[in-house]
Amino acid sequence: MALEFSIEITDQDLPFFMEAMKRAEQRAAGKSAQQILDEAARTFASSQAQQMPEFVRSRLAGVENLIAMAGDEGWGLSAEDKSRVVSALTYFSDPEDLIPDNVPVLGFLDDAVMIEVVQGVLRPEIDAYADFCDYRSQEASVRGTDAAKVGREEWLEDRRAELQARMRSRRQSYAPSGSWTPHFKFT
Q1: Domain ranges (residues) in the chain
Q2: How far from chain centre, in Å, is Cα 183?
Q3: CB neighbours of residue 145 within 10 Å
C-alpha cells in the first residue's frame, strides 16, 4: 500500500531554507568549486546505496544533473552561472545539514526538499542545459561522433539559424497579399 503526501513550501517558508543554505556555505568557506562538485558527486554516489523513500531518491537525480551541468566543458557555463549551480550544490555536499545524511531512511529528506527549491530557482539553467544535451546527442548521432565533441558554440549557431528560419517562415505567413516588401536605407 502506497501513502501519498505533499509538502507545500510557501514564500514565507523560503527564508528558513535560505538560512540553511547560508550555513552550509559558511561551513564550505575556503573550498574551491571543484572540491564542492567532487563532494556533491561522492555524496550522490553514496546516497544511491542507502535505503530511502522513492520520492527522495527521485529528487536526488536532480543533483546528478546539476553536477553534470557545472562540469560540462562543452556547455561552458559562465563563471557567474557556474557559481550559482555550485552554490546550490553546497547544501547537498554538506553531511551535517538539517538532517544529517547518515540518519537511516530520512537523512536525505531535507536534501530532497532543498533540491526542489533549488530546481525552481535554477529552472532557466536546467531547461537550457537539457535543450543543449538533447541537441548534442542528436547532433552527435547525425555526425557519428562522440557527444562530448559537440560544443555550445555549435548549438548556439544552430539555434540562431533555427530561430531565423522560423522568423522567415512566419514572415511569409503574415505578409499581406501582393508583393510589397519593406526596404529601408541605412545611412
Answers
A1: 17-121, 131-173
A2: 43
A3: 11
For 5-19, b/e burial (b = at least 16 CB within 10 A) is eeeeeeeeeeeebee
pLDDT over 70, % of the chain:
90
Collapsed DSSP state (helix, strand, coil) of residue 9: coil
- CA 112 – CA 105 distance, rounded (Å): 12
Mean pLDDT of 3-32: 85
Quick one: pLDDT at residue 179?
Answer: 54
Which residue in 5, 2, 7, 1 sits closest to 113, CA to CA? Answer: 7
Cell numbers found for residue 28? 564550505
Radius of gyration, alpha carbons of the chain: 22
CA distance 171 to 151: 30
User: What's the whole-model pTM score?
Assistant: 0.75
Ramachandran angles phi, psi of 97, nearest 5°: -75, -160
Give the count of alpha carbons within 13 A of 60, CB side only: 27
